[in-house]
Write a structure and sequence with these properties.
By secondary structure, the protein is an alpha+beta fold. 45% of the residues lie in helices and 9% in strands. It contains 44 helices and 31 strands. A 4-stranded antiparallel beta sheet has the order 26-24-25-31, with helices on both faces. α3 packs across α6. The longest helix has 57 residues. It starts with 6 loop residues before the first helix and ends with a strand. This is F-box domain-containing protein. InterPro entries: F-box-like_dom_sf (IPR036047), F-box_dom (IPR001810).
Length: 1217
């Protein structure tokens, strides 16, 4: 057998043989032996055949695919059959040889056809005016047909083109504003589509209908021919319209396919990402990081933030080896972060518990509050530090355990204070026996070490590193800045670089003066204070800041006075003087000793008066008005392991000078209106010292509105200046009517003396300002009183509820107390009371609660059983849906999912499995093949029930042997009519099997009001059997008798005809009784179903003789008229010509993958899409040409037609006589 080689190699060998090598002395030339190869497609067995085929004759380099064309043709074609159209398209663009091969219709037609048929979702069939390569380029191409651009492309499936934004402007034209007769014709015959356009200047995008220029020019040439003949013109336009219709249909289906393909790609990418994420998570769990991953799942998309987990490609071993170190490092850092966070939360919780104990101690020892730190600092002092930081994390630190160390608090505070005092004393400069500063700090000098009394001197001032406040002792011990963690703490400053991660987790806050450098002695403030104290006449080396505050002197800044002239004078207290010197005269060094001067007694009185009315003193005055706290009222109590703060720790503001104590007490604590003694809707006016209700008459008797005027000589203007204004619950300013009358008398007594009026107005203004300043104190006290009253009620209700819960636990209802919500417990009778629970009250309340909880216990158990059966029945949904999707013809007459759950073998699994065991879909999968037999058994049982309901006349008096044969054909008789006892609807077989009322629970069987009082059992089964109870459906003898008369009128045999045969005959009858009532015309005609309903609704009392003569069959001419009337009737406009609609079987098929039942891949809208008989492709892209591709869904079970029931055919119509 001769060797085989490609045509290209054989040609090269022939050319090489023609060039003879020159003879040499070294011997004969070396003969090259060719390797033996198979015969390729380029060779033929005939001696005179062409050495090459067209697709193999190429020139130049052919790239990496150059050896593909050297393969035998049958192998190439076999390989190509497994490719998709997009792969064939890309290969055709790889080189000229592959292009020539794939464009050869005689060789690769079946290859392209197989590629399109195997692609999923299946694209629409290839149009007749396109070949497969063109069709593949249209569907899968990614370049512009004109300029090969790859960005901003728009595909017009209707026009078979794809253009970029720039080419759209040239390849499409608009014929909107052209009105020529020829162009009007061209609009009707030229291809057009809605395409996206883009304006470069305005950056605006919009969609408009444009015409394809190429098709327009072709049609223009055709129209320019002689089409003057009307018939030719109409025929031409008809052909063009048919072409446009086909293109439009193809465009629609192509767009639907694009949408399905887009969804498939998106689902595929999501599945790949999900699978990749699950694989990575599984590998990380295998490495021992499951606890970190569980914490990440609590955050939204937190796992997706891990490096490499959201890739778009499947995970390989090589890629896992690449991303594993980074993932492990990330999870280690996260684990450390989570552990630190957990530790910090634990320390915060324990510190809060210790802080509560500290607050309890301070409330009972107020004398220590002055020198005590913040409450969080106690958690850093022994023995409390050991409790907080060294107690195992799994053990809860309770307030009771901390309270056992209550006696250790004084020693811990004393030790802490001694350390803080030592640090502050070390900051003070050394003091000589004469009291003069020498050197710098005591630690660096040789002076005498001062005692603790030095810290209380007014000149012992300190400054904070974090704020500008000047601190005195002991306020420096509780300064908030010194207990906070700042951006760069001393602990981190001392930490070596690279070891910051090893810093242990600390509790809230920070130790006082952490690092020892956050508080310093303020030499500048001390120097300024020395000068000011000396100016006030005190010894700076002896006087304390408390003595200065008690003296309450004022000092004048002479430097500000010299700048502003002889008047006014700026006076202030000694504290404000220090701050003033820093703010205004920090750079002044000359005559510092003469910068300050103490004010005399007269000037001091004026200063006090100015300060009382000054807004800058508002906060100070409010604090003074509040008065001191009561130590006993402010004590915190500890009971039952909980701390309880006092209800109201503040006393009311001091009594105003213009009210007596009884009047003030009535204003504070009274509960009636000052006018009508009403106790409802009360409001206190703190500005006018009165209380009023909502009644308009009371408001009128206590308040008046003074008109605003600019006339300063008028009484109204003067009264608005001297009377306190109230704005509570009133839009306009109001004034006290009582005060108004008294001030009017004063105004009249002055007889218009302007000097006296001005002096009196100034006095009243000061009085009004004092009331304004006290208003905030009154409102704050009122708010605190209301809050304390509410808290008192809440605490008493909580104590009562806890006492009742304790009693209920003692009598055996602990499971109900712990398993139910707080809202439910609050709804129990007697639980929400305010009074303490007594034994006498419990003797009456206990039996009531016992009855309620006993009923609720049974109801709760039944509810748990209900939820359990429901959740298990839901697991059967996949089995039920899968079987119906594989057998869609059973859908209209199949049991519901709930009914299937009550049929064996599923009933044993759902109802018989213990409650503590899990029931999922995997337990039902072994019985998947038995679902069909279960359906058939259910239908047989229902048919037996229906057969027993039929009378012997309809069954034909069958013998016992025939009844054993289970003759179902009897049920299809037209006279076999049934009635639902709940809705009274007339039913036929097999629609009666799926009637809604027969598959729902009958609420008439419940007796909720009697439950709990006897042995009545609550139905805990959510699933309902068909015709549960056996009495929901009965044979409709009345309707059957009506139909017998109608059938005889129609000439049909009532004993044999079925309802399908009646519907197919589509006959009509006329009601003669209605015609007699209305005269000779018109005539009321209807079908046999409506005739039954008409008889029962309009003529129910007629005897059998009248019913027999009350109907007449229509003749053929009248029947045609009735059909036309029914078509034109508005009431019958929604009626459809056939019963049911078509659906695609493939779109609704569920599938089994890896032992799990999965829903269809298409959307729910496509699953239930209605098809037309002429459709060949559904929206999901499935072929509908096969008879088994679709199934008929009856109206009786269609959501659109469900309410039409028995009467689904046209309504009665009136026709002329």
């Amino acid at each position: 057998m001769s060797g085989r080689s490609s045509a290209r190699l054989r040609e090269k060998e022939l050319r090489a043989a023609e060039i003879k090598p020159k003879a040499t002395t070294h011997g004969a030339p070396h003969s090259r032996t060719s390797r033996k190869k198979q015969k390729t497609a380029a060779e033929t067995s005939a001696p005179n055949a062409k050495p090459q085929v067209s697709w193999a004759r190429v020139k130049g380099r052919r790239g990496h695919l150059k050896m593909v064309v050297e393969m035998p043709l049958d192998i190439i074609l076999e390989i190509l059959q497994y490719l998709y159209p997009v792969d064939l398209l890309n290969m055709s663009r790889s080189n000229k040889a592959m292009r020539a091969l794939l464009l050869d219709r005689s060789l690769t037609f079946r290859v392209w056809e197989s590629a399109f048929s195997s692609f999923s979702p299946a694209p629409p069939p290839c149009p007749d005016d396109l070949n497969f390569p063109q069709y593949a380029n249209l569907l899968f191409g990614d370049t512009c047909f004109e300029c090969d651009a790859k960005k901003r492309l728009t595909t017009s499936m209707k026009c078979y083109v794809r253009y970029c934004e720039s080419c759209i402007e040239t390849e499409f034209i608009s014929l909107t504003h052209v009105d020529q007769e020829t162009v009007k014709l061209l609009r009707r015959v030229t291809l057009s589509d809605y395409v996206k356009r883009y304006d470069q200047q305005s950056k605006r995008r919009w969609q408009t209908n444009l015409f394809l220029r190429r098709d327009y020019e072709i049609k223009l040439q055709e129209v320019e021919l002689d089409l003057s003949d009307t018939s030719k013109r109409a025929e031409y336009e008809k052909r063009a319209q048919e072409r446009l219709t086909k293109r439009a249909s193809f465009g629609y289906h192509a767009r639907q396919w694009e949408w399905a393909l887009s969804n498939a790609k998106r689902r595929n990418a999501a599945d790949i990402q999900s699978t990749r994420q699950d694989m990575i998570v599984g590998k990380l769990r295998g490495l021992g990081y499951g606890d970190v991953l569980d914490r990440l799942r609590y955050s939204y998309r937190a796992i997706a933030t891990l490096p490499g987990i959201t890739g778009k490609k499947p995970l390989t071993d090589k890629e896992w080896d690449r991303i594993r170190p980074l993932l492990v490092d990330t999870l280690i850092e996260l684990r450390k972060t989570y552990e630190n966070d957990q530790r910090k939360l634990l320390l915060d919780k324990r510190t809060l518990t210790v802080s509560g104990v500290f607050d309890y101690y301070i409330s009972h020892n107020r004398h220590t509050e002055r020198t005590a730190p913040l409450n969080q600092q106690l958690a850093r002092l022994e023995p409390f530090r050991t409790l907080v930081y060294d107690t195992p994390s799994e053990k809860e630190l309770t307030a009771t355990e901390v309270m056992e160390h209550l006696d250790d608090i004084p020693g811990a505070l004393k030790a802490w204070k001694e350390d803080a005092d030592s640090l502050l004393l070390a900051l003070l400069p050394s003091v000589s026996p004469r009291g003069r500063n020498k050197g710098k700090a005591a630690s660096r000098g040789k002076g005498k070490e001062p005692d603790l009394s030095v810290l209380e001197r007014a000149t012992s001032l300190f400054s904070c590193q974090w704020c500008t406040e000047v601190l005195v002792y002991p306020a420096v011990l509780s300064h908030p800045c010194l207990f906070q963690k700042h951006a760069r703490s001393a602990a981190k400053k001392s930490q070596p670089a690279g070891e910051e991660d090893d810093i242990p987790v600390d509790g809230p806050g920070a130790p006082w003066n952490e690092g020892g450098d956050q508080v310093q002695f303020d030499e500048e403030a001390s120097t300024t204070a020395t000068v000011i104290i000396a100016a006030l006449g005190h010894d700076p080396n002896v006087v304390t800041w408390e003595e200065l505050d008690k003296a309450n002197q004022r000092i004048e800044c002479l430097r500000c006075r010299s700048k502003k002239g002889a008047a006014p004078r700026l006076v202030m207290g000694w504290r404000s003087a220090i701050l003033h010197d820093f703010a205004k005269h920090s750079g002044d060094e000359d005559n510092v000793s003469r910068a300050w001067e103490a004010v005399d007694a007269d000037s001091l009185a004026k200063a006090y008066k100015k300060e009382d009315v000054s807004r800058s003193w508002k906060q100070v005055n409010q604090v003074k008005k509040l008065g001191p706290y009561c130590v006993e009222c402010a004590k915190i109590t500890f009971a039952g392991g909980n701390f309880r703060a006092p209800y109201n720790t503040s006393r009311p503001p001091n009594c105003p000078v213009d009210l007596t104590l009884p009047q003030y007490a009535n204003l504070l604590y009274g509960r009636t209106c000052f006018t009508c003694d009403s106790i409802h809707g009360l409001t206190v006016s703190w500005m006018c010292y009165t209380r009023y209700c909502r009644e308009a008459e009371c408001i009128k008797q206590q308040f008046l509105e003074i008109l605003e005027t600019e006339d300063q000589s008028s009484l109204e203007w003067y009264m608005r200046q001297i009377l306190p204004c109230d704005r509570t619950r009133r839009r306009n300013p109001s004034y006290s009517l009582l005060e108004y009358k008294s001030q009017v008398k004063v105004y009249v007594s002055m007889n218009g003396d302007q000097e006296k009026l001005d002096q009196y107005r100034e006095q009243r203004n000061e009085h009004c300002n004092i009331r304004k300043l006290a208003l905030g104190a009154f409102q704050k006290w009122e708010s605190m009183k209301t809050g304390a009253r509410k808290k008192s009620v809440q605490d008493r209700r909580r104590d009562r509820r806890e006492a009742i819960m304790k009693k209920l636990v003692e009598i055996g209802y602990e499971d109900m107390i712990t398993g139910l919500s707080a809202d439910y417990l609050g709804s129990l009778p007697g639980v929400t009371g305010v009074k303490p629970l007594t034994d006498e009250e419990w003797s009456k309340l206990g039996p009531q609660l016992s009855d309620v909880l006993s009923w609720d216990r049974r109801h709760y158990a039944a509810s748990q059983r209900w939820d359990l059966i429901t959740s298990r029945s839901d697991e059967l949904a996949g089995i039920w849906a899968y079987h119906l999707s594989q057998n869609p013809d059973l859908w209209p007459f199949s049991p519901t999912r709930e009914q299937l759950a009550k049929l064996e073998p599923f009933r044993a699994i759902i109802y018989g499995t213990p409650a503590d065991q899990t029931v999922d879909e995997s337990l039902f999968m072994p019985f998947l093949d038995q679902v069909g037999e279960v359906f058939k058994g259910w239908m047989n049982d229902a048919e037996v029930v229906l057969l027993k309901l039929l009378p012997s006349a309809i069954r034909g008096r069958a013998s016992q042997e025939k009844e054993k044969l289970h003759d179902v054909s009897v049920l299809r008789k037209a006279t076999a009519l049934f009635t639902c006892e709940q809705c009274n609807e007339i039913l036929m077989y097999p629609h009666v099997l799926t009637h809604a009322c027969l598959t729902e629970r009958d609420e008439r069987g419940y007796q909720w009001k009697d439950f709990g009082t006897g042995d009545n059992n609550l139905d805990d089964d959510p699933n309902v059997s068909w015709n549960e109870g056996g009495d929901r459906v009965t044979f409709s003898k009345v309707a059957s008798d009506y139909l017998v008369n109608i059938l005889r009128v129609l000439g049909e045999d009532p004993d044999t005809i079925t309802w399908e045969e009646l519907d197919e005959a589509n006959k009509r009858v006329e009601c003669l009784r209605c015609r007699k009532i209305k005269g000779k015309a018109p005539r009321l005609v209807m079908n046999w179903r409506e005739a039954i309903l008409h008889e029962s609704h309009r003529h129910p009392e007629d005897n059998s003789k009248k019913r027999a003569s009350g109907w007449k069959a229509l003749d053929p001419d009248s029947l045609l008229v009735a059909y036309e009337k029914e078509d034109d009737s508005s009431g019958n406009a929604s009626k459809r010509p056939v019963r049911g609609v078509l659906h695609c079987r493939s779109c609704q098929k569920w599938r089994i993958e890896d032992g799990e039942i999965l829903p269809p891949t298409v959307s729910e809208r496509i699953q239930h899409a209605r098809l037309k008989p002429e459709d060949v492709v559904c929206e999901g892209g499935h072929d509908l040409t096969s008879a088994e591709a679709t199934y008929l869904h009856y109206y009786a079970h269609d959501p659109y037609e469900a309410e039409k029931g028995f009467s689904y055919l046209p309504y009665p119509v009136w026709i002329p006589a």
